[in-house]
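re: ur question from earlier - yeah i can do the single chain one, its not a big deal. heres the input i used so u can compare w yours
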Amino acid sequence: MSLAAGQILIEEGGLFDLDAVMQVMGDSFDPAFGEAWTAPQCAGLLPMPGVWLSLARRGGTVAGFALSRVIAGEAELLLLAVKRESQRFGVGRKLLEQFIVSAQRRGAEQLHLEVREGNHAVTLYTEAGFREVGRRKNYYNGRDGKLYDALTLARQAGS
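and the output i got, formated as tokens:
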């Protein structure tokens, strides 16, 4: 089934989608901040209980992904990435909405994520009801030597 360029389809993925995930990650994460994960890191996490991968397809190709996990009633959005060419089309928003719904279906009551201070995705998360609940000072080390805080955000699953 071919999708028009503006349509976004969210589907579950798996280890067999790792190449597409790595392409999205390579395109969307700025290497200046060291936030991207390696293929072995992703591959090692995907088979674990409570972990799931959501893929966003736009125009028939993988435009973004979200990697998440749920443990003991708490869900964490580990990674969310959208190819640059597909940003500002609602792909990230749809992936975040799917994370919230999937986490609730898996029994999560509390949702968490962590993001670098200054990352443009902070706006997306706060618009979805996430609020800062913690901060890791100087967690990210930019290539320019500047240190960036990691923001811990959370919200109730049903709110």
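Residues 91-105 form the longest helix (15 residues). not sure if urs matches, ping me
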